[in-house]
Amino acid sequence: MRNPQLNANGALTHLLSIEGLPREVITHILDTASSFLKVSHRDVKKVPLLRGKSVFNVFFENSTRTRTTFEIAAKRLSADVINLDVTRSSTAKGETLLDTVDNLVAMHADMFVVRHAASGAPHLIADHLRRLGREDVHVVNAGDGRHAHPTQGLLDMYTIRHYKQEFTNLVVAIVGDILHSRVARSDIHALTTLGAAEVRAVGPQTLLPTAIEKMGVRVCHDLRSAIRDCDVVIMLRLQNERMNGALLPSAREYFRCYGLTPAVLALARPDAIVMHPGPMNRGVEIDSDVADGPQAVILPQVTFGIAVRMAVMGILAGN
Amino acid sequence: MGEEALQIRNGRLIDPANGVDAPLDLFIAGGRVAAIGQPPPGFTAQRVIDAGGLIVCPGLVDLSARLGAIEPELAAAVAGGVTSLACPPDSKPPLDEPGLVERLVRRSATVGLARVHPIGALTEQLAGERLAEMNSLARAGCIAFSQAKRAIVDTQILLRAMQYAATFGYAVRLRPQDDFLARDGVAHDGEVASRLGLTGIPVVAESIATATALQLAAHTGVRLHLSRLSSAAAIGLVRAARDAGMRVSCDVAVHHLHLSEMDIGFFDSNARFDPPLRSASDRDALRSAVADGLAAICSDHTPVDADGKQLPFAEALPGATAVELLLPLTLLWATQSRLPLLQALARITSDAAAILGIAAGSLAVGDAADVCLFDPDESWRVTPETLRSQGKHTPYLGYELSGRVRLTLVGGKVVFEG
């Protein structure tokens, strides 16, 4: 089966998931992002790559932050950006996902940036566009259910490469609610593709997906032994609704077992970096002393995120 | 009308119920098998059907096929060689009232294609709370009682339902799944669901419900049939119960003999099934269970329209059109498993008829002439146009399958010719 995000020539048509992306494609995105990062530091922050193109931010699930970073990225590429808050409009009137897509295609959309609560929704849209013969319209997955958040995965790789240069000797721990995390899945695919030495999936059994080791990670239930000798620690957000119930007894106990404190971080390599996709729950998954400490690279992640999203949109529009 | 005297000549007659696999002519009169091999005295055929190169077997018996619209689905059934089918009670409205059952029986008889055997609801509205009027439903034509895809969560009510059914000797059919363990699940809880971020249904959801059903059935003495098993664990429990002398039967949906969780690919909603497609080792266990006769095969035919499938995987409706694929997919399994046709066809004829307790799936002299003639080697492409069912969704869309039905008889009457 052909990877649905690559065209017949192996070029990227959509960005749906990091799964199955060749290493060269990932590296090309990161290299391109590197050149866009310089643009962000100029007085005039725009390049004309997407001039005349319409980028539709179609968010079936609320997320002001992610939507804003895509909007900034598209505007810096000189695209016309249209934000659709679909949670409040058409679907509330019973329109199906693909009806919405058809309408936007009729408005001459060139690119969709899609967030949806259901895993696989961007794949469905990409498949629909293929059946319509509209492979000139590109889909960027901005997060689908628990499945994937590929631009977050890519910006995480950008961040790691920025601080660590290369991946082959790295030990990376991903800590927390991996079960519900699309970021974790995207990071795991990216890290295994880029050849990280070891990826550790850390959390209680209730927050780890079945057979997660099949994705090429080592499962650890003990935070301290998992952090030992790590180069990179990626902390995941714990959603409020999962803190008390059948998955976890309480936020307090979670912090005691899986919260990243300076004492725990001291077990990692001295030059280890700490990442978080945001927004953070201070005192739940991460101690403020760590979040604001010298090893945290959480704000640079945000800056890199814009350059990475520019790179993705620029490459898709060029293919 | 239609009950003319027929001679089916030159075919290879395979009749698993009677252990027949030989080049024998079939003589039909008055809607029944009049003779095999040699014509009965004084027989004059009004029509002679040449079955050269074809297999002549009993019309197929499908343990589970949802009808949706009656006429197109029964036309699909006979085009697939199916002459008797059991219809689960989860229609809208559910089959929990004698009037509804009578209407279904009457309407399907009027259509006059495949014979329809309704399965009544075990509880009112399938809600698992109050018993349905089983005796009245049986009088209206129900041949067994089930909850279709719904579970009876309250085990005391399940016990009472079995006791009540056992009182009258009715069979109870259950699709074993624990509602709590399966909550929100849309795919097998395994590596594919984990990778795709889909909520999993663990195997224990099926095995625990299977163990519960087996123990309650042993306790009540009810005749139990477990429908659409999907896991090696559940098969193992049924095998152990049978080995211990319990009268229990089970079936496997034909898709589950061929597909696994891997076939979901990138969120292919055509591979969304209930129960879910499980691991390759589960599939292998299902294949052996069918091969050795522990389980029969059903189509689990479920017509779903495009609106129900063109949705993100978790929101799409489960099920596939299958009644026209039952024969070719059974033949494919038999070929792959190197099983003789006599044995393979038993799973979709005599075994299924025995489970349902209906007089079908046999071509002895005097039996109703429900017959299927098919070319085992002719292949055809599965497309929306070649399928007669209103359901056009199947993972096999675009595939070439071997085994084409050429003629179907119900009660000696030609109901399909292709």
From TrEMBL, chain A:
Its EC number is 2.1.3.2. Residues 14-161 form the Aspartate/ornithine carbamoyltransferase carbamoyl-P binding domain. HAMAP family: Asp_carb_tr. GO terms for molecular function: amino acid binding; aspartate carbamoyltransferase activity. It catalyses: carbamoyl phosphate + L-aspartate = N-carbamoyl-L-aspartate + phosphate + H(+). L-aspartate binds at residues 93, 182, 237. Coiled coil: none annotated. Heterododecamer (2C3:3R2) of six catalytic PyrB chains organized as two trimers (C3), and six regulatory PyrI chains organized as three dimers (R2). Residues 170-314 form the Aspartate/ornithine carbamoyltransferase Asp/Orn-binding domain. Pfam families: OTCace (PF00185), OTCace_N (PF02729). GO terms for biological process: 'de novo' pyrimidine nucleobase biosynthetic process; 'de novo' UMP biosynthetic process; amino acid metabolic process. Catalyzes the condensation of carbamoyl phosphate and aspartate to form carbamoyl aspartate and inorganic phosphate, the committed step in the de novo pyrimidine nucleotide biosynthesis pathway. Pathway: Pyrimidine metabolism; UMP biosynthesis via de novo pathway; (S)-dihydroorotate from bicarbonate: step 2/3. It is an enzyme of class 2 (transferase). SUPFAM superfamilies: Aspartate/ornithine carbamoyltransferase. It comes from the Bacteria. Belongs to the aspartate/ornithine carbamoyltransferase superfamily. ATCase family. This is Aspartate carbamoyltransferase. Keywords: Pyrimidine biosynthesis, Transferase. GO terms for cellular component: cytosol. The gene is pyrB. Carbamoyl phosphate binds at residues 65-66, 115, 149, 152, 278-279.
Automatic annotation (TrEMBL), chain B:
The keyword Hydrolase applies. This is Dihydroorotase. One of its GO terms (molecular function) is allantoinase activity. CDD domains: DHOase_IIa. It comes from Candidatus Accumulibacter adjunctus. InterPro entries: DHOase, DHOase/Allantoinase_Hydrolase, DHOase_cat, Metal-dep_hydrolase_composite, Metal_Hydrolase. Its EC number is 3.5.2.3. GO terms for cellular component: cytoplasm. The keyword Cell wall biogenesis/degradation does not apply. It holds the Pfam family DHOase. Keywords: Hydrolase, Pyrimidine biosynthesis. SUPFAM superfamilies: Composite domain of metallo-dependent hydrolases, Metallo-dependent hydrolases. Gene3D superfamilies: Metal-dependent hydrolases, Urease, subunit C, domain 1. It comes from the Bacteria. NCBIfam families: PRK07627.1. One of its GO terms (biological process) is pyrimidine nucleotide biosynthetic process.
